Every structure is written in structure tokens, then in C-alpha cells.
């Protein structure tokens, strides 16, 4: 069939008084084709109307599509079994043309990002061989939208703490941050809402202000908005994780960083033959620079040393200097990505490597164990809380000695006595303790009830005696006398 340009040329030459033979010779087409165009007198090619082979079976195809759960192979098998003369390619073409099981394609848009404007962050679950075991991995990735520079790390879990650790590492890897960070409505960052109505957590807003960017959540179902980071997870799973084994999580993340360096240095046709590193050289100048000091991300805990000389943090137990167990101090524990730091006030008293496996563990520093016999000598000395209480109430020394002889006198019980000293009148408390010591009673709850009884008797007024109300008969007799 002649195209529209050739048909237009035929009609133009006819108007110039050329014959069909000369027109056919000039254009290299047959004389019959020229005569057909001249008879039609139209530049538009005629429409071809062909009967579709699947049209006689439309009702059967629609019914089988539902019963076969959308499997066209089974639909074709059932049609041919019923005697239909229809090939499998003809069936699939018919279904495509008539949108049977095929949603119409929506034209895709295109996002254009200027240098330093946007970075995209997301996570995806994978599995990797770590320490000889198949282990679930939460892969966190960040991609710069303009240069497509990639950075990713793996974590056994991904909470708000790991999110801040990852974004800090990513900012260090890129030596800066973009104007906005697009996320997918994750609860790790979003406090409520979604998309344009998303309200970010105040904690994460303060973290983003540290690096000069802001979080933006795309609309639910609009995964194309963060396609630059989404499409990389397939590459991570089928390239980085394929056939690799790792000793531990530190080895995993070290290999991930080296792999990102190689990927970012690779020249790609989609980037016009350049590499992401070359485009990043331009984007780097438009990014927010890192602050002068980037504080280390940590979780803060407050712990009291247990009877064995450990503090418990996230299913793991960490040793502390043995004297802190006897003194009963409240310690501040800072849990970073790799370490656990233990502070007594402003002073660092212990530091341990943090296990990342999430399993129960006992981390012991041999220097924290006491010399032989030192614990027994220290136990005979009063600890800090007891010394403070004895300074405030010297008359209670005999009662504290009685408590120790009965297996009491722990830090918790001494603090109970100190709290009673702050809350109750001193006279009622001294009298109750003197009476308890005389009868050998060391139960602090019973002692507190004795104090409350004395306060009620000494400080609360006794109820007044009300006059007796007249009875109904006396009132009736008085009315009768009148």
C-alpha cells in the first residue's frame, strides 16, 4: 500500500498534466497503483478492515479469563479443546487490543533535577550470607537525583536510630547534602499523614536541620517519584548480593562501600557516556556543605549496675568497674553504631564494642573484675547511699545495722529510707524507727504504715461528738403534751 506522501505526489503530478505511465515511471510504482490513487482522488490511505480471528470467541474468552484466573495459556487450552481455531499469538493479540486483562498504558512523565536539589532515600528487605547463615538484611540506599551517585549499607533492623546513622554516613560519603530528601512515607521519619499532608517527626526535623535539608514524602502509590532509588534495589540484590558471603556486618558494609565506589565510577550510556562520579563533580558545588562538627549518633539510656556488675542494654550485658556495683550509682549509657560508652556523670568509666547481631551477649572487660578478696572487704564498708543517710540521720545507725544482720540494707532499701526522710515529719519517723528497732522489725512497708498511723494520731484532729438526734416518739410526745 502506498503511503500518504507518495499518494500526494501522484495527485500533484496529475495536476501538472502528467500521464499515469510517466508518473509510475518517475515514482517507481506500478501503473495500477497510480490508477487506484487517481480514481480515489484522496491523499489518505484507505483503512483496512479485517475481521479479527478472536472476535467469534469473545464471550468464551471473557468467561474463561475469569474461571482460569487470568492465565491465557489455560484459556487457549480450553478454547482449542472446545474446537476453536485460534492460535495462541492471535489470542494474546486480541486480548491486548481489547484490554482483556491488560490495563491501558499511561504515558510516563519525566523528572528533571538540577544539581544539589534532591536526594532520594528508601529501604528494602533482602537476604545475605553473613557468618555462614542466611540472614535478613534491611538495605538502606540513598541516590543523588542529578548525578545518580549511589550509597547503601545493610542493617539487621532499621529503626529511627539506624536511619540517623545511615543518613550521617551518606552525608559523609557525599561530603554534603541536597536541598530535600524524598522518602516513601515511612513511619521512621513521618509522624502522621502521608504525601503532601505528611507531618515529620520533630526528632527527624531537628536531625535534618543539622545538615541543612528537609524531608519530603511522595504520595502513596506514586513510586515513580522515587524511581531513582527504587530501581537500584534490583541491582543491589542481583549484583552485589549475588554469590557473595560476608564474615559479619562490618565486612558487609565495608564491601558495600567499595562496591558503590566501583558502580559510581562506571560509565553508563544512560548518562550520555559519563559516569556518576563525573556528574557529581558538578553537583558537589551546589550541595549543602557539612557542618564544622558532625556529632556521633547515639541512643541514650540510664541504668543502675546490677548485682553482678553489669548494665543491660538491648539484650546485651556490659561490664563496669566493680566498685560501681557496690556504690549504686546511676550511669548514663550511650549506644552508638559500633560501641557502647558508659559515663558516670561527665566521666567515661567503660567502653565496649557493640555486638550487632541482636543476640544475647555478655561483654566483659577483664580490668573491671575485682582482685581476689577485695569484694568482701568492700561489702563490709557502707556504700555511698548509706553514708549519705547516716550523715543526715546518725540516730538510725542501730536500725541500719539491724537491717544488715537480717539480710537487708540494699541500695534500694536505703533509698526507700531516704525517701521517707524527705516525705514525713522527723519526729514521727524517729519514733517509729526506735520502736521498730526495739522489737527487731525491719520490714520497711510496715515501718511506713507505723509512721502514717503516728501522723494521723498526732497531727489530725479527733472528730467532734455530735449531739444525739431526737427520736420520732419523743417528738410525738412533745406535740401531744402541747
Quick description:
By secondary structure, the protein is α/β, with parallel strands linked by helices. Helix content is 43%, strand content 17%. It has five domains: 4-40; 55-97; 118-286, Nucleotidyltransferase, domain 5; 299-376, no CATH class; 388-459, no CATH class.
Structural notes for this entry:
This protein has helices at 4-15, 20-27, 31-40, 58-67, 72-81, 88-97, 160-174, 202-211, 227-240, 249-265, 276-283, 322-327, 374-380, 384-392, 397-405, 411-423, 426-439, 444-459, 472-481; strands spanning 118-130, 133-144, 150-155, 180-183, 190-192, 199-200, 214-217, 245-246, 299-304, 310-313, 316-319, 330-335, 339-344, 347-353, 361-363. With 482 residues, it is of the alpha/beta class. The protein has 5 domains: 4-40; 55-97; 118-286, Ribonuclease H-like superfamily/Ribonuclease H (Nucleotidyltransferase, domain 5); 299-376, no CATH class; 388-459, no CATH class. A hairpin with a 3-residue loop joins strand 12 (330-335) and strand 13. The termini are far apart.
CATH class of the largest domain: Alpha Beta
Distance between the termini: 135 Å
If helices are DSSP runs of H or I spanning 4 or more residues, what is the number of helices? 19
Under CATH, the topology of the largest domain can be stated as: Nucleotidyltransferase, domain 5
What is the number of beta strands? 15
- In the CATH hierarchy, the architecture of the largest domain is 2-Layer Sandwich
Q: Helix share of residues?
A: 40-55%
Mean pLDDT: 86
| Main sheet characteristics | 6 strands, mixed
According to CATH, the homologous superfamily of the largest domain is Ribonuclease H-like superfamily/Ribonuclease H
Shape: elongated
Tell me the structural class: alpha/beta
Q: How many separate domains make up the residues? A: 5
Strand content of the residues, in percent? 15-25%
Rg over C-alpha atoms, rounded to the nearest angstrom: 42 Å
- Poorly predicted segments: none
